[in-house]
Amino acid sequence: MKDFRLPQELGVAGVVLAVGIIMGVISPAFRTLDNLEVLFLNGSVVLFLALGQTFVLLTGGIDLSVGSNIALTGVIAALTMQSGVPWWAAALIALLVGVVVGLFNGAMVYWGKMPPFIVTFATFGISASIPKILTDAKSVTVSDPMFAIFGRGSLFGIPIPVVMVLIAAVLCALFLRHSATGVHIYAVGGNPATSRLAGINVAKITVLVYVISGVTAACGGIITASRLMVGYPTAGSGTEQFYSIASAVVGGVSLFGGIGSIPGAFLGALLIAEVSNGMNVIGVSSYWQPLVIGVIILIGVLIDTNRKGFSMRRLLQHFTKTTDSAIDSDSPTQGDETLGHSTSVKDDQKIQPSLKEG
User: Fold this and answer.
1) What are the boundaries of the region Disordered (predicted)?
2) 322-350 pLDDT tens trace
3) CA 78, CA 128: separation in Å to the nearest integer?
4) Which of 235, 240, 296, 344 is the most exposed, having the fewest neighbouring CB atoms within 10 Å of its CB?
């Protein structure tokens, strides 16, 4: 019998639905359309970060620089617009900065042969310092009002950040599942040495995933600066990168690489945003939120570390063994009769030679 495994995303979707129902029962304000819009709008940045973090985690790496990348790209966009650059060009420059950060991380991880944790932690400090140096730690006002479209605009009533992240999620999911490069990403995360022997360009894959993470972080920086119409040099210094890792892991992306999906990470980010929004709506102190998210991460990592999956074959084998044991324990008479029969046969064998001798 072929193993039947329940999709990881199904369990996460069930948790998202259950949390939504519980929050809606506790507070009717949670289940309003206005709050739903706020939930997605506030969660759009974390959703973007979770998409990029998923690519990195699938190769067995980690990106701790995404939070400071938000500040760096947002401030760069604001400064370029102050210098007379059009709003759309400023957004492209911010994306280019995200690419550069990703290239640096990927190059240092692969060719520098340094642990991703160390490289991206160092990049976190560098990216956090540059905007403060450029602005003397002061906020930079966005001069072009058209830039607000990224954070405050809407399309058919749907906020533009939500539209952007939905499009990005679909494109990322299709790229991972239906392209050769996507398959190679999973392969590198599963076994880099075997992937190299199979002819996969591990260097290209490693750099690519960090570039994707840098671009998604830049999208988060553009949205943040656009919503506030200010480039903050300290933006993203809170729990953003913490939540991006939590979202991916809770969504079923393995910290050890090779396992996970974009839909799972998306649902994980949605769960984190839902919990955070729900706690705000019902009036729970913000000091409790990191604690709750920390517990969620712990549970996610615990499941990931002891991942065995749900297998119908294992279930049937366990059931069969249990049934056989129960039958054996319930029929001692049969065992005794067999033992008695074997004893009598041995006795007959002993008697027969003596008869012959007689």
Assistant:
1) 324-358
2) 555 555 555 554 444 444 444 444 444 44
3) 16
4) 344
**Three-point CA angle 42, 248, 206, nearest 5°:** 115
Domains of the chain, residue spans: 19-304
Residue type, 38: V
Percent of the chain predicted with pLDDT > 70: 81
| Closest C-alpha among 224, 247, 248, 229 to residue 72 | 224
Task: Please list the residues that pair with 159 across neighbouring strands.
Answer: 154
- Beta strands at 230-231 and 140-141: parallel, antiparallel or unpaired: antiparallel
DSSP H helices in the chain: 8-26, 33-58, 66-82, 87-110, 116-135, 149-152, 160-178, 180-190, 192-197, 202-228, 240-250, 262-281, 289-305, 312-330, 332-357
Q: What pLDDT was estimated at residue 330? A: 56
* Residue entry with tokens 């199979």: 198
Residue 196, helix vs strand vs coil = helix
pTM across the whole model: 0.80
**What is the per-residue pLDDT for 172?**
93
Separation between Cα atoms, residue 259 and residue 60, nearest integer Å: 9
